[in-house]
Amino acid sequence: MADDSELLNQIRRGDRAAQDAFRQLLDRHGRYLFGVAHSLTGGNASDAEDLVQETLMGALTGHFRGESSVRTWLVRILVNRAAMLRRSRSRRPETALDEKTAGDASTADRMPGAVESKLDLTTMLAQLSPEHRQVIVLRELEGLSYEEIAAALHVPRGTVESRLHRAREELRKRFKGYL
Fold this sequence. Notes:
Layout: H1 4-13, H2 18-40, H3 45-61, H4 70-90, H5 97-101, H6 105-110, H7 113-126, H8 130-141, H9 146-153, H10 157-174
Helix pairs in contact: 1-2, 2-3, 2-4, 3-4, 4-9, 8-10, 9-10
């Protein structure tokens, strides 16, 4: 079984095994990347799918230097693409989160607990700055190490630690009585 960097080389060579190599890479990392993208986009599945596609296209045109794992490299590409999406959207007015998630009380009463919890998490993450959301998603939801987060975000480990501390504090203050 080929490792990830070998799969990338097969894809770049474009030989007959390239399509199979791409499928294997997607099978290994696609769901994970979608989960990260979904969290970074505030729960927007369509945007998350687009980000994963753009990430994979970026991986095909980029150069993996082997300084981190392929997964960390892919997350770095994804985070960069998410930032570009966020910047392009910041130029247009957004609909308030409350308007997107608001429903009548009867709809909320019928939602299963898991769906309510997911909406709560999405709402909480949306309240954070993009930098704080990134570190919370990568550390708490995806379980990346500080070093992997630092590599993915192109920042020093100390910056990751301080952002994570501030993000946690912000969540504690904003949602003090939640639990």
